[in-house]
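Late entry, evening session. Most of the bench is empty. Finally got around to the prediction I had been postponing all week. Sequence below, unchanged from the version circulated by S.P.
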Amino acid sequence: MEYRCALLAVKDVRRSLTFYQKWFDVEVEVDLGWNIGLKGGLSLQEHFAELVELPPGSVLTRSHNMELYFECEDLEAFDRRLQDDPGVTRVHPVKEYPWRQRVLRIYDPDGHIIEIGESMSMVFKRLMAQGNTVEDTARMTEHPASYVRAAVEGHA
């Protein structure tokens, strides 16, 4: 058995595709009309309830029980772009977790949560640029020192 993709039930597949292309630079792998497969393992499916014979109206929005996760190298630049678009609804602004990674979350047009975080290699580099050692950075980020060292050197 092999995992293939995550599928999001959407109300308007074209609107959702536009959103994901604008914010996450996704590319279409296959467009079947009501279903669009994106490179990287995400599919957008319109008329999901009908397709799987669920009761109309049973597909929830903002169910808050899953999220898609993306990483970027420059979270501040991404955040500035978001601030210029009043059509994007935030779950929360940029926040920093105890392991020192900064993230923000938004909703897609159908209420699915999307987390955008800075990559851990960027977190390591940021902390080390502030004068922390590999060992300090490992302790602060709750990662093994060998992993931090490899990520900073571009091997992780």
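Two things to note before I forget:
The domain at 1-54 is CATH 3.10.180.10 (2,3-Dihydroxybiphenyl 1,2-Dioxygenase; domain 1).
Strands lie at 6-10, 28-31, 35-38, 42-46, 67-72, 90-96, 102-107, 113-118.
Will write this up properly tomorrow.
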